[in-house]
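Tutorial handout. Part one gives the primary structure; part two gives the three-dimensional structure as tokens.
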Amino acid sequence: MLNKIFSLFSFLFLLLMAGVLLYSCANIASPTGGAYDVEPPVVRRATPDFDALNSFPKKIEIEFDENIKIKTPNEKVIITPPQQNMPVIRSIGKKAVVELNDELLPNTTYTIDFTDAIVDNNEENPLENLVFSFSTGDQLDTLSISGKVLSASDLEPVTGIYVGIHSNMDDTVFTRLPFERISRTDSRGQFTVRGMAPGQYKLFALQDLNRDYKYDNPQEAVAFLDSVIIPSSVPAVRQDTIFRDSLTIDTIKTVHYTRFLPDDLLLRSFLSDFQRKYLQQHARPEQHRLQLQFAAPAPIPSFTLLRPVPPEKEWYIMERNAGNDTLQLWITDSMVYRQDTIVMQVDYLRTDSLNLDYMETDTLSFTMRGASRQRRTEQKEKEAEEDEEKPIRFLEMKVNVQSTFELFHPVRIEFGEPVTAFDSTFVQLLRQEDSIFHPVPFRFGHDSLNPRKFTLRPSWIPGGKYKLLVDSAAIHGYYGLWNNGYDQSFSVKDLDQYGNLEMLISGLPPGKAAFVELLDKSDKPFRKSSVKGNNARFQDLLPGEFYARLVVDEDEDGYWTTGNYETKRQPEEVFYYPGKLLIRAYSDHLEEWDLKRLPVIQQKPLEITKNKPEEKKRRDPNLERERERQQQSSPFSGMGGSRSSGPPNGM
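Part two.
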């Protein structure tokens, strides 16, 4: 009997051990290998020492407690005074090495700001804000100034632009001499110029295209302060919070430190309105159309036809954009456009090497590629007309009318080519009243730049039903085409489908003109209203979410105007409404807008900010590995499906 009981217990023990072994095999976990390194490198020593005096090193070595890497040193590491000859910045094992190739200036503080370029070799934990300084004299300059650079037109943070100082107060120093000390903006547009001596300074920003640290190219973005900067320092106190975990506060420490002022400077960068003028290209994309593309806006050039012999009447119709940098000449004389080659003299403004404009005279040849082949094709098509009926090709006519039309839109008509005649008599606009259509008066306009565009502006009746008619073959183009008939019925939206907005604006400089632009989600303006009596009104807005920007219109031209350093003119000021505007249908909205309630650097909503700041989130591999280990050791790991804390739906 005892043998049977012993055998039974042995069997149960063996069965239990087999179950444990099977479970262990099903949950094999990789060896941990110790905790991950989550700490940044620690500085052990430097040659020369930090803040060394009377030192003239050609090579600086900083040693750390582990192997390191320097990420994108040419972008992240800032050496000031700026170096004309590129320094060599590299990592060797545990050392960061900087070799200076410029002659060191006497009695000067040199600063090497590594920002976050130094990381450890394995986990790439960054060492934030490491700054190495030394002086070639017997004094180390320690003052600094900081602030932010924003794009003047849209308040976008400007990344990677140089910020520099000059102690020379001459107005031309920015264009003649390199910066004395520099910094570079980060992803938030923030900068800190370090190692400054007491004194007075002028502050500038420069998108340096040729790396000479001075403004000698009008195509470089710049910014400048009108006021003089005097750096200083004051003792200050801050509270540092140490967390035990992500939610629990461990300790709150009071930290005494030195605050360097000013630390809230704002530079508004801009491109000057200077652009080099020259002819970029010319072409003949169609037999009857010549195209010229210029590099910058300029007055309209003059044209003289050299070959063929110019006709007595005008031989072209010009189409252009607002700046006259894109021109199209529609040739209306068949004796001209039937020529394989057209030769023309063009007189236009060109910019020389000294950035001065002069009148250039060019002789241009326009040849239609495959002109002979095209004539043969036309001849074959003409011969084939006798044997086969060819479909009619109509003059292209684009109309913006749809079955449901916006209350505030005019009717726009655009033809595929210039037409010989077109006025209000060619169009009928009718409105339905008691099932009968009656003519509606409208203002008829011809586009001043594009001869193919026309506009009809009636006084729409909200909710009204309309019809637009154009008779067939009523309109003829210059090249043998005529229009097909057009008959479109449509209705205009009612007032209850729109909302109205009034903005009460405070903080506007007295006596200054201004206008407000409504912006879509991509920061593009779609409506504009002048500020009158501190009010801006928008009628008949489609429901939706919008944003707003105000421009102080110094020259009262209705557009934002850029700055000019040569004349010391700042760009026109821009303010953003610091929130979202929600417009509902059939509602009147009143918004109060204090331009000065928030600093300019905090005004632009993050939703429409294109250059969003980089979020630096440090990964904790140890926590991730612990979670992974717990998942692997779970008795439910490896099973299909998911677990629910409650019964399935319906039970």
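Part three, for discussion. Residues 24-31, 634-651 have pLDDT under 50 and may be disordered. The CA atoms of residues 561 and 572 lie 6 Å apart.
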